[in-house]
């Protein structure tokens, strides 16, 4: 090879490397076309209407890589119902209008319309998507988002294979039936869920039907559709299970009989690994756990999920942890493990406290805050209806999305008075049943100074029942927050902050407030947009347990007209 | 009294008369505020979700006088569902945009929105209103419109009192459940209705539940809500019963035990009176009958309604015809009369033929027509789904309302090819099962030359079952038509028109096509707008049994922006 040709070769070689590097580093566009419609499905053997995406519930898993752009063209093929989908855990930096929260960031999508969601998944991790309109999430409109790191970027743990699993609780009644009962003056609560689903598969005992049917297809336990979910593993291999919960109501525990799990990721952030027998998981949370198939390979094992934090009447959800080459339908020879007792608050608090940022991935929080807001969570009556409240204000969604109202200065679209930033810390007894008549309702919001640090303390309290306080998983849109601390009883504004973890707190988008306790979190108001922050229990948010933050609205460029067309924004959308 | 004061008195007196005359002749505005929402109701003792208006189903009766303007401010308080209401029988002259037909004359009304309907009731008579979106009518969103003549204008019959009664059939499943079954490739038909309602009250035998419930409130025959409707009469008095049918499926017969009825009005037109024992009534029709309380006053009587034209499995609906002062809950001492047998087509055809215009109120039809359109009604398969078709084209509603698309010249909003105006008259055998695969679907429409006379022949045929042809009640929006004739078998285009009744045909807005028969009607295309013409059986229209006429669009002034905001008209609505 002469000097000239060597030179040419080198140039070409470098060019090739360059090209391949571009291919490696260049983010891709992942384009999905989804048709949303009603279908009859039997996820737990009981046949009912389910909202499917392309015929499936859970919908297709979005598998992407850090930096990719996701485009979802969502066609609403429901007959008379609108729809909206939230991309849970995706911060929507630069695209706050595609957060998918009806009434906050967009108008609902009408039947017959196709709406384009377009956003970047800017961080590896495990995320979710689900309906965010009325109580539609309960209809089965949900799925997983799985984001891997950029090529060549290692994660702080090793595994051979991975699986996404969504845990859910399942009702046989429709969201309309539930919502009508919740919002009537003779309040009717639908009760505990009929079953628990593991990746869309549950098992309702048809003989337990309070309404037995003569239709053999109405509840049929022989349907393959409701055969237990099978997690097949190869002996000796290590599996990353990406586990998310989208329960309507239930806090859950998840365990795999005879196997330890190592928690390595929470809500898209690496966790300093710790080993558990069972994982407590609250609605809106995601975890990655590593499981090694290191037990006797001659049999299968149970994977189970059960209700905690409420006296369970819902049977455990069962899946099969199947050692290859055993038959996937071969039942384990054992009784499914019962898991921890439902009212063991200490163990759940202990897991919450155990979750710290991985030592090599610490995002140190700002050491001081610019603003402290305390949110007292209570159950109240407003206008003769049972409601949930924050600082005695029960939240109503407006019909004009805040994002548009704020950007277009439609001051009559919602209450311009901000709700209170605290409660009567001195006199309020969090261990006493709530006063039934002392709450109001509002669609007012909290405006946050852009680029400031905000502390939120979520204060739990006794609800309307004697000696009862529920677990509330709060989810923040558009941000991750640092979890600074948990405590029991009433938050002490002077002393408790001294014990905050400011060294290695985990960042999350969803966090539990334990019964009669408090949870403190901190975030930077650095994402221009309007963001819901609410209890992820579907009925609680519907009944007013939420707030909305707005920040940096003046920094937003023009909003896409596709999000407009309802309330005061009729006529704002011109295609 | 001196001359001067007498003069003053006379002037004042004349002024007063003048004032009172103005009050008499001046049309009034009747303003209603309606909130539409879901509530649990037990119209037939079985509790289910019902869409109510101001807490009621049937909704409030609109009682007005000829020439009045009706304003209804309709607030949609459903959670995720849109809505639209059609004013059935009101021609909407000058206000075609308020016909309330989603996809034809307006976009649906979003949750949280208040939509104003404003129209004139320009003719005395008995009319209806009901949801016209998806299959929402079946949820109980319907009511009566009762228009009296102008003061001083007599009607051609006398009565002492009047009552409005709507007959309906009732399903325990939701419209979403029905629609999902009908539109899936493994077609599931919901079957016959569970009960028949008389003015919103029916009686389901809870022990016959195929799905008995442990909830004592789920089906409770002791509820006052589902006690039979009571029609209290004073002995010797004559009652005008304004009877409408809004069944989803069923053709009905209505009778009052031991009493004759005199038919005096049909769809807002005076009928040459005739006496019947039982009234056949099809979905979308209204009749006024006179009943004299001339029987033994010491007891009560049954008023009953039963299914005809389909082999009935639905029990008869029962009301009490209560002679005052007997107790309204005192059961008649007799067995309810069974009514005519379901498959007695001849009697039904005879009633159809008996209905002629009252001799003093004849609107003579044009003696010739400008255009003849024949509509063959068949059941077919399109893309693997069971559908109903007209001339082998199954109708789909577009998502951009025709009225706006035509006025704004949005030619890509729907198929610009008009559907066929006839079928293969020579070769098509109407007595043979339909070919399952020979239909297509379209949202194309028929454009009618303004101010022309149009003849429509509705031709019935065998459906997908052997030796079966159903009764289809066709309803025309925006017009009344003359009913020129009925016949058996295949319409003979050369000979049958010779037997048309061109002397005293009744005008109607809804007419039945009897099994294996045809019905001929004529109307003037003199109402600028876009008008649906369809089978009033909710499932048949949903499955494609309808057409749309457009006429005089260029004569319309600006459309109200309130009807816009969906499909291609997003952004057209600016409040």
Automatic annotation (TrEMBL), chains A, B:
User: What is its EC class?
Assistant: oxidoreductase
Q: Which GO terms describe its molecular function?
A: copper ion binding; L-ascorbate oxidase activity
Signal sequence span is 1-27
Q: Which residues form a coiled coil?
A: none
Q: Where in the cell is it found?
A: Secreted
Q: List residues of the Plastocyanin-like domain.
A: 36-150, 164-324, 431-552
**Which keywords annotate this record?**
Copper, Disulfide bond, Glycoprotein, Metal-binding, Oxidoreductase, Repeat, Secreted, Signal
| Cellular component, GO, one term | extracellular region
User: What Enzyme Commission number(s) apply to this enzyme?
Assistant: 1.10.3.3
Q: Which InterPro entries match?
A: Cu-oxidase-like_N, Cu-oxidase_2nd, Cu-oxidase_C, Cu-oxidase_fam, Cu_oxidase_CS, Cu_oxidase_Cu_BS, Cupredoxin, CuRO_1_AAO
PROSITE patterns documented for this protein: MULTICOPPER_OXIDASE1, MULTICOPPER_OXIDASE2
Cofactor(s) of this protein: Cu cation
| Pfam families assigned to the protein according to its UniProt record, in alphabetical order | Cu-oxidase, Cu-oxidase_2, Cu-oxidase_3
Q: Which reaction does it catalyse?
A: 4 L-ascorbate + O2 = 4 monodehydro-L-ascorbate radical + 2 H2O
| Homology family | Belongs to the multicopper oxidase family.
What interactions and quaternary structure are annotated? Dimer.
PANTHER family attached to this UniProt entry:
L-ASCORBATE OXIDASE, MULTI-COPPER OXIDASE
User: Under which name does UniProt file this protein?
Assistant: L-ascorbate oxidase
Q: Which organism is it from?
A: Quillaja saponaria (Soap bark tree)
């Amino acid at each position: 090879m002469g000097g000239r040709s060597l030179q040419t070769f080198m140039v070409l070689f470098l060019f090739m490397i360059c090209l391949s590097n571009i291919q490696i580093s260049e983010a891709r566009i992942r384009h999905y076309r989804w048709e949303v419609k009603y279908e009859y499905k039997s996820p737990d053997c009981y046949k009912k209407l389910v909202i499917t995406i392309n015929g499936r519930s859970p919908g297709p898993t979005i598998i992407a890589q850090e930096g990719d752009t996701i485009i979802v063209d969502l066609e609403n093929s429901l007959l008379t119902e609108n729809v909206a989908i939230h991309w849970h855990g995706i911060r929507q930096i630069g695209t706050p209008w595609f957060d998918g929260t009806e009434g906050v960031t967009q108008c609902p999508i009408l039947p017959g319309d196709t709406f384009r969601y377009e956003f970047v998944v800017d961080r590896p991790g495990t995320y979710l998507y689900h309906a965010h309109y009325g109580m539609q999430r309960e209809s089965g409109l949900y799925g997983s988002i799985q984001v891997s790191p950029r090529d060549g970027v290692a994660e702080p743990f090793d595994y051979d294979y991975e699986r996404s699993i969504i845990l859910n609780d399942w009702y046989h009644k429709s969201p309309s039936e539930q919502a009508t009962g919740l919002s009537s003056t003779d309040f009717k609560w639908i009760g505990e869920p009929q079953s628990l689903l593991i990746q869309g598969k549950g098992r309702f005992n048809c003989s337990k039907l309070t309404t037995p049917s003569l239709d053999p297809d109405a509840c049929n336990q022989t349907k393959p559709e409701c055969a237990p979910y099978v997690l097949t593993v190869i002996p000796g291999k290590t599996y990353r299970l990406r586990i998310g919960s989208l329960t309507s109501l239930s806090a859950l525990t998840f365990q795999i009989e005879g196997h330890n799990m190592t928690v390595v990721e929470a809500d898209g952030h690496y966790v300093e690994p710790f080993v558990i027998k069972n994982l407590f998981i609250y609605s809106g949370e995601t975890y990655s756990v590593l499981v090694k198939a290191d037990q006797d390979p001659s049999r299968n094992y149970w994977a189970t999920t059960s209700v905690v934090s409420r006296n369970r009447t819902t049977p455990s959800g069962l899946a099969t942890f199947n050692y290859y080459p055993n038959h996937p339908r071969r039942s384990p020879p054992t009784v499914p493990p019962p898991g921890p007792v439902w009212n063991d608050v200490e163990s759940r608090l202990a897991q919450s406290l155990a979750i710290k940022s991985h030592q090599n991935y610490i995002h140190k929080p700002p050491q001081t805050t610019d603003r402290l807001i305390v949110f007292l969570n209570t159950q109240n009556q407003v206008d003769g209806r049972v409601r949930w409240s924050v600082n005695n204000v029960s939240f109503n969604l407006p019909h004009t999305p805040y994002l548009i109202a704020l950007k277009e200065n439609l001051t009559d679209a919602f209450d311009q008075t901000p709700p209170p930033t605290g409660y009567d810390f001195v006199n309020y007894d969090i261990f006493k049943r709530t006063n039934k008549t002392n709450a109001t309702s509002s669609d007012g919001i909290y405006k946050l100074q852009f680029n400031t640090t905000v502390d939120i303390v979520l204060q739990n309290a006794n609800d309307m029942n004697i000696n009862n306080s529920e677990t509330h998983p709060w989810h923040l849109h558009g941000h991750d927050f640092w979890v600074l601390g948990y405590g029991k009883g009433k938050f002490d504004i002077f002393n408790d902050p001294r014990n905050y973890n400011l060294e290695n707190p985990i960042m999350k988008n969803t966090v539990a407030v334990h019964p009669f306790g408090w949870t403190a979190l901190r975030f930077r108001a650095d994402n221009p947009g309007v963001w819901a922050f609410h209890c992820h229990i579907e009925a609680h948010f519907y009944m007013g347990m939420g707030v909305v933050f707005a920040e940096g609205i003046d920094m937003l460029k023009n909003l896409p007209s596709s999000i407009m067309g309802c309330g005061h924004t009729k006529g704002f959308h011109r295609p």
